[in-house]
Amino acid sequence: MDNKQERTVIHVEITGQHYYFGSLTAVYTMFTPEELGVALGTLRNFRVMSDKPYINGKCIIRKGTLITMPKKNL
Q1: Which residues does 44 contact at the CB level (< 8 Å), separation at least 6?
Q2: Phi (first) and psi of residue 11, to 5 degrees
Q3: Tens digit of pLDDT for each residue in 5-14?
Q4: Which of the 8 DSSP states describes residue 49?
């Protein structure tokens, strides 16, 4: 059995800084729609993908995969 661990990660680039979140909803615990220039519903409808980032004049939002070490069964 493949025990590889993969998790979705949302990368937000805003004002030259980079932030990483576990979901689109988590992004809005740190930033407001006004700061990002986009509402959560709009991002969900846009369907951010690894090959399809959301880009506007305020931020870039990308979706990727975080790969971690496999869990060892004890």
Answers
A1: 24
A2: -105, 125
A3: 889 999 999 9
A4: B
4 pLDDT more than 90: no
What is the per-residue burial (b if ≥16 Cβ within 10 Å, else e) of 18-41? Answer: eeebeebeebbeebeeeebebeee
8 A C-beta contact, residue 32 and residue 48: no
- Global pTM reads 0.85
The rounded distance, in Å, linking the Cα atoms of 18 and 20 is 7
Which segments of the chain are extended strands (E)?
Answer: 5-14, 17-21, 54-55, 59-68
- Residue type at 53 in one-letter notation: P
Q: Closest Cα to residue 27, out of 67, 60, 66?
A: 60
